[in-house]
Amino acid sequence: MTAAGIILMIFAGMALYIWFHLTPGQAETALLIIRKNLPALLTGGLLLSLVFWALSDLVYTNYIKPVRKISGNLALIYASNPSLRIPVKGNQDIQALARTINTFADTFEKLNQDIKTQMVEARKETDQERNLLAAIMGELPQGVIICNQNGRILLYNSLAKDIFTRTMVREKTEQFMGLGRSIFHLVDKDLISHAMEEINEQLALNENSAGSFFITPIGDHSLISVEAIPVLDKTNQITGFILAILDITRDVEKFRSMQRDLSDFHEYLEKQSTAEQKFLTLSDTIQNTYLSRLPLSRLNLAPFLFKIQKLTGRTHNIRINVHNLQRDERIMADTYSFTKAIVFLFRTLSDWTYAVEFDLSVTDASGRIQFDITWDGVPVDKPGLDSIIKTTINALPGFKSILTLNNARLNVPESGETHFSHIILSVKKSTERPATSHRTPVLAGSRPEFYDFNLFRATDRNQRLVDTRLTDLSYTVFDTETTGLNPEGGDEIISIGAVRIVNSRLLSDEIFEELVNPGRDIPVASYRIHGIHHEMVAEKDPIETVLPRFRQFVADTVLVGHNIAFDMKLLKLKEKTTRIRFTNPVLDTLLLSAVLHPVHEQHDMENIARRLGISMIGRHTALGDALTTAQIFLKLIPILNSNGILTLGDAIHASKNSYYARLKY
Questions:
Q1: Which of 422, 438, 620, 653 is catalytic?
Q2: What mean pLDDT is reported for the chain?
Q3: pTM, whole model, 2 decimals?
């Protein structure tokens, strides 16, 4: 039709040109001839237009279109699918060209296979070493997580993943562990920041070992002990850190059980002073021996108390006057949690008593350092002190648990009073340097070459996301299965499947796959497509419970899907009921394929996968389609780059120019 229109425009232009150059007499004669022969002239013009249209269509179909298809298929053969062949169709010249290209494609495919075979052979030894390293890491008695200096996870072993995932409460938003994710989703950022500050102080003093211990709760009721070890570059600058993790929940529970038994035994011996003193000595010995397994640091008391004064003064306007402080006195405690606990104690006492100034007197009492805390003002009663002890501190165990883990005690003077303005906090005194020390910092330059995975080059970029190269982004590729194709008409999501891509690698172990209870029936027509029936979803969580977990899974990534406008419409319709909004950037493999290969009419998943040489498994399951879409997207990235589409912004702009971008749901 375009060709016919062009021809008619050419004829009209020629006619107008001739008309304006005729004399009045010639024009009158011409009009007379046209009136007498109008049917014949119109028929002739129409036939002539049809002939020209047929000829132009014949040329386009047999020459131009086949050449354009050959050009597009050549790019596919070179970039992603060496096994693709050009259909031998068209005129003799096109057929000869197709045969020649296919011959070269055979040679190219064979060369590719030979190169892959050689690469596999060359990698065998490296793979054996890497598999051995992975096996060793998998069998380590500690969980191990390696992060870059920005806290992005670069490596983790199975025990670390098990420690965190087994403690998650499914009713709450789950935290996901994975490459490229932030460690701060799993461990409180303040804890790691404090550990890094402590390590930097140790490095500044040129200590032989540098590291930091801390204890933190995870999940619902679990406790972990964490040792942070720095990774240094050749200039001794921190380029990352390693977290060695132990689950100490059972150890702490055993200790608490032992404390309860000792307390019962103590009550029995209370009336026998000699036996009670022996009991207390034995009790201290048992508890000290048991708590020696916990990662407590040897702290210099003077700077520790100075830090307490500074924190309470700066954050809560509380003044602490320290008395009788001896130089070089040291205690055993977990720096972060014990500091937080003491600051919390003074803040709470101030709230209860309205006092803004406290006196803290330091004394040495039988192997323990005793802090006598007094104030002027409203006294505190025993129930009030008990409520303070039972309070939970943000991102840490309860106040009582912190005292237990630091081998500390909080008491009141034995005066018989019910209200008091004097409490006693004591902690174990350090008499010698502990036998345990931190490990030697890991030097990145000392690793053998076959372990050089360039893990520490992955740093957060300051540039805008739209200006980031496609190869440098992290993606979540997802798909949904539904009760039907009319979201606004009441159709619901019944399955969500997703997989992550990091550093142009498909992470097949980092997946999200959940069935969803739609709260309505599943039509037979839909069941025949995806195979999900009512009994399969009847006991599953509703979308209001699943979407918060899915949002956590896709955090900090670009969303990718095939015809993703439909899936995003489903998610958008749930914003009001779930209060979950997805603001991630979005890319669509349907639009990208249409941009890259406009000569191809079919851009459904099956045809794109066939063109790119991808085998489809699990079609019409959410996870199966997500995995296929992920493979398609990875194949499209180098083709996009070769067409000058390098960044996320380039890809979004190109997608908007596609015909399919006009589709709305």
A1: 620
A2: 80
A3: 0.67
